[in-house]
Amino acid sequence: MWRLAAKGTLSLGIAAGAAAIASSEDPAATLKVCAHLPPRLLRDSATAATIAADYTWSLWGLEQGSPAWLAAKHDAHLRSANRLQELCFRNGGIYIKLGQHIAQLVRNSPLVLFLVIPFERGIAVESLVDGFEYVVPEEYVQTMRESMLKRCPVSSYEQVKGVFAKDLGESPETFFAEFDPVPLASASLAQVHAAKTHDGQKVAVKVQHDHLTATSVVDIATVDLLVNVLHYIFPTFDYRWLVDEVRESAPKELDFLNEATNSEKCLANFRRMSPHIAGSIYAPKVYWNLSTSRILTMEFMDAKEVTDVQGIKETGIHPADVSNLVSKAFAEMIFKHGFVHCDPHAANMMVRPMPQDSRKRFGWKRPQLVLLDHGLYKELDNATRISYASLWKALVFADAKAIKENSIKLGAGDDLHALFAGVLTMRPWQRVIDPSPDHLVLDGKNTDTSELQMYASLYFSEISELLRRLPRVILLMLKTNDCLRAVNHALVGGTSLESFMIIGRVSSEAVLDAKRMSRRSILDKLMIWLEEVLLEARFLSLKLILCFMQFRKLLPS
Fold it and tell me: Which residues are within 8 A (CB) of 206 and not within 5 positions of it... i.e. 6 or more apart?
């Protein structure tokens, strides 16, 4: 079996190397990179095989749940986490991104992550052994947190100048009056430098790590290899569908001109389809004459990270207002625009007071949300967008019939519609259809986390089947939901009733807009008007309940 994997690794390495050289604008440099491919791929398969063998051997003959089994599993977790960490550092690039997501997303959200991990460019190691927890084990989280968030790769200034020379023909000093050779920040794919244009404008210059475009072909091939080998060894591990998603998204994320185009399209959508909040959404101005596929020059933003609660308060903004704005912005993108920023974690969103605005709400300034890193967007076709909006409207109003109908339309099937609802809301089915106004609210307490972990473990095979059935665009919406849930948890300590009211309102408006477009008769218009009146009445009652709940919180316990 392992000989077969090794032969497959070498064959895949040769094929990936040939593809990289053939598609590269600099074949000589790519050939140099590809010289390291066979050992790189062998290292990947050896790591996967070692982890699998470690769990199998360590737990062999031990009674599941016994003290000896738990101790052996803990030790295997630690050893495997260290092996995965070492693999990420040695391969770099996309692998660093895997480790960062394991650390950052789990740190920001204590909720179940079986939906998120498959999207991060690597393997879901928690699925290797029967009886294993189907969430990321704490040993992995701690290992990655202690290293990945602090040891991002940094390109030397000579390498940065090399990218400029290849893409623009000159060094940074030619194009900028000032260019700080020390990066402000570095991530897995690029690093950002502060600079000043010749006309005195302060800008942020995002420079891709050299040769990353060429090695990404290899990384994708490696993911393909690992997923297929692990599926061969462990048939229940079937995430082969993720390879197609990675193949599609990775080239887009590595093309900074595509990122710049997405940022401008995002703002144009708000101005055209959501003018009531367009002024509250911003993306840094792009300097097109100083940008290429590997260099992106943008307006420098002086703002707070979206989860910097203390910093946000110091600017005169209430964190709850930021939470509501984030919910509104992404509800509009998902349900109305159909063009969605799919990487909305904390580092990709900033907040500042609304420019040139003196108005205040109960003494607090109005926030403006600044969206960064527009490399990963997804478009929802009209039918999918309306079905997804109808599903969320049904979830907010606990409409079991509509939940089932729209879940089936989205591909969950008649047998898994309840599970799909639970995956979207992180609530069990009986809570999903509970008519109480706060039936979807999560407070992030340990009881919530334990309940979710239990359901993830009990229904892992059904969850795997659900993920296989759902369209890839819906899978990315699940990841987006989890990122937004983590941001709201940091801002207000959990999901709030008000955030679900926002989702319910925007999804309902999207459904009504679709009906107006398709139904033109006077009777249809009257029915739509009556439906709108009833919706407003329901939202008014929810608003009154929310005010009552907030008033109760102010009273002495």
Answer: 190, 191, 192, 256, 295, 296, 297, 298
For residue range 516-556, list pLDDT tens digits in order: 888 777 887 888 888 888 888 888 887 887 777 767 766 77
For residues 253 and 220, what is the distance between their CA atoms, to the nearest angstrom? 13
Domain coordinates in residue numbering, the chain: 1-149
Positive/negative CA dihedral, 472, 449, 332, 518: positive
Say how far apart CA 291 and CA 343 lie, in whole Å.
22
Q: Is 378 helix (H, G, I), strand (E, B) or coil?
A: strand
- Amino acid 383 reads A
Residue 7 DSSP symbol: H
Task: Give the total residue count for the chain.
Answer: 557
pLDDT tens digits for range 319-333 = 999 999 999 999 999
Q: Which helix (H) or strand (E) holds 194?
A: strand 190-196
Run of H or E including 340 = strand 339-341
Residue among 195, 208, 78 nearest 142 (CA): 78
- Which residues are paired to 196 by β-bridges? 178, 202
What number of other Cβ atoms are within 10 A of residue 276's Cβ? Answer: 9
Token output for 287:
């300097």
The residues, ordered by sequence, that sit 6+ positions from 540 with a Cβ below 8 Å of its Cβ are: none
3-state helix, strand, coil in the chain (%, to 5): 60, 10, 30
Distance CA 345, CA 480 (A): 8
Answer yes or no: 343 catalytic: yes
Name every residue whose Cβ is closer than 8 Å to that of residue 50 and which is 6 or more positions away in sequence: 83
CB–CB of 320/282 below 8 Å? Answer: no
Instruction: Output the pTM of the full model.
Output: 0.80
pLDDT tens digit sequence for 361-382:
777 899 999 999 999 899 999 9
Which of 236, 237, 231, 220 lies closest to 5, judged by CA? 231
Among candidate residues 219, 343, 373, 482, the one labeled active-site is 343
